[in-house]
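Technical note accompanying the year-one report. For the benefit of new consortium partners, we illustrate the data format agreed upon in the data management plan: each record pairs a sequence with a structure-token string. No post-processing was applied to the example shown here.
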Amino acid sequence: MSARLTQAFFAREVEIVARDLLGRHLVRDRGTPDEVVLRITETEAYGGPEDTASHCRAGRTARNAPMWGPPGHAYVYVCYGLHQMLNLVTGEEGRGQAVLIRSCELVSGGEIVRARRRMDRDAPALLAGPGKVGAALALDRSFSGASLFDEGALEAHEGTPIVDRDVLVGPRVGVDYANARDRAAKKRFAIAGSRWVTHANSLRRARSR
């Protein structure tokens, strides 16, 4: 298994980290019989108060407090009272930036993931969508604020980074409440050719950095 990502990896601008997280691994319960490894296939970048699509658009609250914290920590929130959504905090402390993990591909721990998702096959429906990722990793709000670069129940590992020619970009999903500029902003990133991606029709090849 690859090494854990460092805190310095996350201490960069949110869009850079969102793109660089493609191909990296999320590891739940490493070294135990319940170990699950997922490969990140789709992300979304959310900025601070200047981003009207972000949870930080109205400032610091009890709900979004972890998003303002130091980089490399988790921000988990509940969507529609049901789905646990995993975000990875980026940038300098106090910026209010985070990357939503939108979709993943199964690497190992399939039996555990299928049981958690109540599915009997490894189709994209298993992990294509942020609520599905949260369910597969058995996350809850107690993970909010947890470090991803230290040894723990949830870790972010190096995996295999994706080269520019294999990256797709497009607008974020479900941000109709944001202003026109932020609704159109291409802050969603995905692995080209992956089946484990949502709303693929709105994605296009990224320009090389």
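Partners are asked to follow this layout when depositing records. The two ends are 28 Å apart (CA to CA).
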